[in-house]
Write a structure and sequence with these properties.
Oligomer: homodimer
CATH class of the largest domain in chain A: Alpha Beta
Strand order of the largest sheet of chain A: 2-1-3-8-7-6
Order of helices and strands of chain A: EHHEHEHEHHEEEEHEHEEHE
Largest sheet of chain A: 6 strands, mixed
Distance between the termini of chain A: 28 Å
CATH superfamily of the largest domain in chain A: MoaB/Mog-like domain
Number of strands of chain A: 12
Radius of gyration of chain A: 23 Å
Largest interface: A-B, 63 and 63 residues
Helix content of chain A: 25-40%
Chain lengths: 248, 248
């Protein structure tokens, strides 16, 4: 089975400076996996034309879908549209449909030059509608260009999801145990070797206040039909090691 | 002035699946900028040897410092150490110092094979001590290899910061205004053109409940000695447009 893959490009100095927390990529990630699309990479990059250009091109070649967030507003530091145009060697021009949408939206006399900037897109861009603040994003080739403001981005992204090819959702089961990770590590390794079509992740946690710790074991697979046999083996292994197990 | 640069490699399928929220890169980002180190890129990648290897090498060549998080625990899915060794064509071997630390830490008979795995590092690795759960990270060339658990990673990272070359902290001033972004966009652009040694970022926000919105204007510079003149121009511009301004 050929997987449908995706990459996310988060564009913004404000994330790299630590000023802003990127919540967008986690939102997109969760929704992609539920819809059978495998997110393979997230890259957070500076507001620099040459860097955006190169990253867009590289991701567009590597993944089925690329989602960019940030840099499509009205100010001088919003340079995603021109960078994407440049990446694909497309002319940058006023998108007539976007122009009409915004012209209609703003009170007469308030559709100023900065607002008009938001209608300038690569030639041939298809609009992604914005039900929140109207200014649209766009799609060109396999690249979906979205704004950075989470409330707006989320609505637009969910709309995109309705309209793209999806795959078989990844099967995922999480087993929690109170055993230490290093106690079960070698057994988990054996079980992983037995079931090569799934991946078994091991995520320890420890609460420094309650002093309670344990491991979440995550079994996941894009192509198995059931994870039950793996789940059974892991639960038996935990019991043999006198641990508690809970499928969560 | 030559800037000191950095990149972060977040290694982990659990971030790409949306299961885990990456808080580590924001923590590192905030601390780097305060210490005069410019974070230029964050990349979140899969637990795959060839991908980790390639990314480590690429970041090591591009940036002064590279910080990796995740994948140095005792389980089979922890493959960062072998990937980093492979990137630098170093032998993978038991680090004697790490071995002694862990052997001393665990009760007799409990220093099992999985725990011993955490002492296997690239030849020539320097240890990064772990004051929380003892198992150390390591440094090789300009790459600092850290665990993924935030409470542990944070302590170890702050320790590293004490011991690496830092630069002049970036000057940053934030001015908040109640004006709409598109109202001030062209004026901000003019001010940006006047002061080429700083970067002026514009971050609009809107609360959909209170219906209150505005813009945070962030002036920042790695090489100016003061941002006061820029700040003054922006505040005057806001006043001319009948807006309120507040340096926050």
């Amino acid at each position: 089975m050929k997987l449908i893959t995706a990459g996310i490009l988060v564009i913004g100095d404000e994330i790299l400076s630590g000023r802003t927390y990127d919540t967008n990529s986690n939102f997109i990630a969760k929704n992609l996996i539920k819809n059978g699309i495998k997110l393979e990479e997230i890259k957070i990059i500076q507001d620099k034309l040459t860097i955006i250009e190169k990253s867009v091109l590289n991701f567009s070649n590597k993944y089925n879908y690329v989602f960019t967030t940030g840099g499509i507003g009205p100010t001088h530091d919003d340079i995603t549209s021109e960078s994407v145009a440049s990446a694909f060697k497309k002319k940058l021009e006023v998108n007539n449909e976007a122009y009409k949408i915004l012209e209609k939206y703003y009170p007469k006399g308030q559709f100023n030059k900065s607002r008009q900037k938001m209608t300038i897109m690569p030639e041939g861009a298809e609009l992604i509608y914005n039900p929140v603040t109207v200014a649209p994003g766009f799609k060109i080739k396999n690249v979906f260009v979205l704004p950075g403001v989470p409330k707006i981005m989320e609505k637009m992204f969910l709309e995109i999801l309705n309209n793209i090819q999806k795959g078989k959702p990844k099967l995922i089961t999480t087993i929690n145990t109170d055993l230490y990770e290093s106690k079960i590590a070698s057994f988990l390794n054996d079980i992983q070797k037995k079931y090569k079509d799934c991946s078994i992740g091991s995520y320890p946690y420890f609460n420094f206040v309650s002093k309670i710790g344990g491991v979440n074991i995550v079994i996941s697979s894009w192509n198995m039909n059931s994870l039950k046999p793996v789940e059974k083996d892991i639960i038996e292994m935990i019991q043999l090691n006198s641990g508690k197990s809970l499928v969560v």
